């Protein structure tokens, strides 16, 4: 009687306990992952971890087919990270646009090698064997590092990261307007245009206020004095320039006068030299004429008295003929001297 009375109840309680135990064990078994990933996701908050040690980073997007093809190879490479003594990370450019701007990622997938804060771009295939040889054989040493403003840790690339972050937020906001709220795309564009204009006006107003605070305007009387001072300085400068021009003109005039005086003195010196030469020529000509006369007088030999008396008439005729050429020579000399005297008179100023 007792077994028949409590038997159905015991069976029901036992079935309920087994069902409860199974329901409790089911979620725990489902929650256990098949295999934990060794790839560390990098974000804007923890990306500075790559500044220490050796790292390999992969930039990808969920919609990128090439990125999906290299996922398994990247996971295998990450599992061997302990053997290779390297850390492996990945960056989702959709969720972290700031990091894509900091590394200036333009193609996907993109791979980077980091060694103690020095970054290099890996341009090989995303295959495990190539990645392993790149680390073991230290092929990264032959790659030019990203230094200067190209370094992800530089101030320039930090500004680039900020711009990419803003663009990513604007893109997410646009998707929220068009997809979640169902607003037309042109309405979203109009909203962003108006927001840009308002933001620009606001920033201009802020800059004006800051300039007014740091550079307060001078009182009116001080400004008038400053204007008068500026005018007086300008007038003084103009006077100085005018004086300098006048001095230049005076110096040029003096130079011209000196040059004219020098030219006149040279002309006078040349005239004196010509006169001296003419006087010397005149003296030479006169001396030559005197010598010719003395030679003519010395040529006649003494003759007998009879011959003198008989030949008086022929001698007279000969003397006449000899005197005629002498007188002609003297006239030619005098004419040449007169012409030479008239030449310096014409050359004179």
TrEMBL record:
The UniProt record lists the keyword DNA-binding: no
The annotated regions of Acidic residues compositional bias extend over: 242-284, 312-322
**Keyword annotations for this protein?**
Disulfide bond, Electron transport, Endoplasmic reticulum, Membrane, Phosphoprotein, Redox-active center, Signal, Transmembrane, Transmembrane helix, Transport
This protein's membrane topology, according to the annotation, is: Single-pass type I membrane protein
- Membrane-crossing ranges are 189-215
Q: Which gene encodes it?
A: TMX4
Where is the region Disordered? 225-349
In alphabetical order, the GO MF annotations are:
disulfide oxidoreductase activity
Q: Which organism is it from?
A: Carlito syrichta (Philippine tarsier)
- What InterPro entries does the record tag this protein with? Thioredoxin-like_sf (IPR036249), Thioredoxin_CS (IPR017937), Thioredoxin_domain (IPR013766), TMX_domain-containing (IPR052454)
Name of the featured protein: Thioredoxin-related transmembrane protein 4 isoform X1
Q: Which domain of life is it from?
A: Eukaryota
CDD domains for the chain: PDI_a_TMX
Task: Give Gene Ontology CC terms.
Answer: endoplasmic reticulum membrane
Biased region (Basic and acidic residues) positions are: 225-240, 290-311
């Amino acid at each position: 009687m007792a077994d028949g009375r409590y038997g159905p109840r015991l069976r029901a309680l036992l079935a309920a306990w087994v069902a409860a135990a199974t329901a409790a064990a089911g979620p725990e078994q489902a929650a256990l992952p098949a295999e934990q990933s060794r790839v560390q996701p990098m974000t804007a908050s923890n990306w500075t971890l790559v500044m220490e040690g050796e790292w390999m980073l992969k930039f990808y997007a969920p919609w990128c087919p090439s990125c999906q093809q290299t996922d398994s190879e990247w996971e295998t490479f990450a599992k061997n990270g302990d053997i290779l003594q390297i850390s492996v990370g990945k960056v989702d450019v959709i969720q972290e646009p700031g990091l894509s701007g900091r590394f200036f990622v333009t193609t996907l997938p993109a791979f980077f090698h980091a060694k103690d804060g020095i970054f290099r771009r890996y341009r090989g295939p995303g295959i495990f064997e190539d990645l392993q040889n790149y680390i073991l054989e230290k092929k990264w040493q032959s790659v030019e590092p990203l230094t200067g403003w190209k370094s992800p840790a530089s101030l320039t690339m930090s500004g680039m990261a900020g711009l990419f972050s803003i663009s990513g937020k604007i893109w997410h906001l646009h998707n929220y307007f068009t997809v979640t709220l169902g607003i037309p795309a042109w309405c979203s564009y109009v909203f962003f245009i108006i927001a840009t204009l308002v933001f620009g006006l606001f920033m201009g107003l802020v800059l004006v206020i800051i300039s007014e605070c740091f550079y307060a305007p001078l009182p009116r009387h001080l400004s008038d004095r400053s204007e008068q001072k500026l005018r007086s300085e300008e007038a003084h400068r103009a006077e100085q320039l005018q004086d300098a021009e006048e001095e230049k003109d005076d110096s040029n005039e003096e130079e011209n006068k000196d040059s004219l005086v020098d030219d006149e003195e040279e002309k006078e010196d040349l005239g004196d030299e010509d006169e001296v030469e003419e006087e010397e020529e005149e003296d030479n000509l006169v001396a030559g004429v005197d010598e010719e006369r003395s030679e003519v007088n010395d040529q006649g030999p003494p003759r007998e008295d009879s011959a003198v008396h008989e030949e008086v008439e022929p001698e007279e005729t000969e003397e006449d003929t000899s005197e005629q050429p002498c007188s002609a020579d003297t006239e030619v000399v005098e004419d040449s001297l007169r012409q030479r005297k008239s030449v310096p008179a014409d050359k004179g100023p």
